[in-house]
Amino acid sequence: MAFLMTEISGKFFPALAMTLLSAALTFSFLMIVGPDWTLHAPASCTETKCFCEMPRPGALIVQPANSISSFGYVFAGFLMILLARSRNRVSAFPPMAAGVLGMAAIIVGIGSVLLHATLTLWGQFFDVLGMYLVSGFFLVSALAKWRDIPDRRAMIYYALLCGVLVAILYALPEVRRWLFAVVLVVAICLELVLARPMRFQVRTGYYISGLIANAVAFTIWNLDQRGQLCEPESLLQGHAIWHLLGAVALWFAFLYYRSERSAT
């Protein structure tokens, strides 16, 4: 644990700097495309309510709290990528796989910003895209460990799975949340029942901590969505807390994979 904290401390500020740069680039892109988001097709959630935070009509960032909190994923992703590049000979987690998970986390964050900043259909597409990339990673990782699939072939399967999920997202956007939930639940079950026993000296506590963080986050997501935990004009939003806890859950998943040791 002390070694891990030393590693993180050396990567913290570079990851923070990269996150701030990503934020600047994202907001610059929004300034070019916007700020009149009524010219774009609205996100499907606008037919009911896009979470508790009150949209700011005419603003560059329609939901500031939900947008800014999304960069928690981006920070976690950059931290994963930087740690993947460091020398850790005892970990069995391939640096390429760690980098892919980190990049998926970054895409989750940027996609979430694009949705909440614009409440557009194309923003929603990129938001769900990141979710599929992460859930697909978990599923393929569990299958690869269970069936002893080589890393390169696993990457091909991952690319194919993501392609199928994106095609479904494009053709049937209304099933986006259900499909994500199904892939994620299947991935969790496969990991805990079939893959985890094959991971040498892996620290299951990290995975359980991630599941707990996700469970708390999902509870808050539901309360926010139903208006039971809701102050529309506040910058303290339940959905923003969902983003931050989701980033924590991804970080614990990364630590879980990275804790696996080489058997030889």
Structure write-up:
With 264 residues, this protein is mostly helical. The chain has helices at 2-33, 64-68, 71-85, 95-118, 121-147, 151-171, 176-195, 204-225, 238-259. The protein is globular, with a radius of gyration of 18 Å. The model has no long low-confidence stretch (mean pLDDT 92).
Q: In percent terms, what proportion of residues is strand?
A: under 5%
Mean pLDDT: 92
The parts where pLDDT drops under 50 for at least 5 residues are: none
The run of helices and strands is HHHHHHHHH
Largest sheet: none
Helix content: over 70%
- Assign the structural class, choosing from mainly alpha, mainly beta, alpha/beta, alpha+beta, or little secondary structure: mainly alpha
* Straight-line N-to-C gap: 22 Å
Categorize the overall geometry. Answer: globular
- How large is the radius of gyration? 18 Å
Q: What's the total helix number?
A: 9
Strand element count: 0
In terms of topology, how is this protein built?
Layout (H helix, E strand, L loop, with lengths): L1 H32 L30 H5 L2 H15 L9 H24 L2 H27 L3 H21 L4 H20 L8 H22 L12 H22 L5
Can you summarize this structure?
The chain is mostly helical and 264 residues long. It has helices spanning 2-33, 64-68, 71-85, 95-118, 121-147, 151-171, 176-195, 204-225, 238-259.
Q: Keyphrases for this structure?
A:
single chain, 264 residues, mainly alpha, 9 helices, 0% strand
